[in-house]
Amino acid sequence: MTQTKISDHISTPPFETKELRAYLVQFLDSEFETEGITQKIGNFKWGVYAFFDYDGEPIYVGQTNEMVRTRIRRHLTNQRTDAVAMSVLDPFEVHDISVWPLPQFQQTDRSDATAKMHLNALERCVYNDLIEKSSFSAILNEQSPPEPKVEIAVPPHYRGSIVSKEVFKLRSHPDVRIARRSLIISRLAQVIAERQVQIGLRRVLLVQARRLQWLADRRLPSI
User: Which of 146, 154, 98, 131 lies closest to 207 in space, CA to CA?
Assistant: First the structure.
């Protein structure tokens, strides 16, 4: 008689995965009004986004000109990006997301040079601002955004959480976070050891190590 494995009967994703995907959809479907345009935040085509961890620390800044929804889902679901594949960004750590859309380019082709310059300038402005607000004066981007070629005013942004109270209880425990961050550091160190990489990836490793020590230092007094 063939023994049936328990896993053979599991057709639904784990609780955490299901919750996170549901909350991500809720975030991306949130209505946002800017410059007289109101639509779902995920449906803006051009924009800059930032991820924040469970302490509100900025951990990654990116840009998109394909659609905010598409780019963010690629990071945080099974559509992997280079940042995730190289263990620069850990989706497990993302608690909040901010999006700065550029509605004036909503109907603009992705190859438009003017729109690209505005997008690059916005990314640099957001990046610099979050670097200043970071406790580590650093973000986990492998490279800094290019220097802006145009001057822009930073537009209004939308910020929201993608983590339910139940998932927060599971993932916010300091021991869980320390273990997870140690795992990511190990994976990143392995990538660096096995490949010829740029200095930016080594810088990310250093920042992650500082963030791990910060978590461990905070945990020690309560033990």
Answer: 131
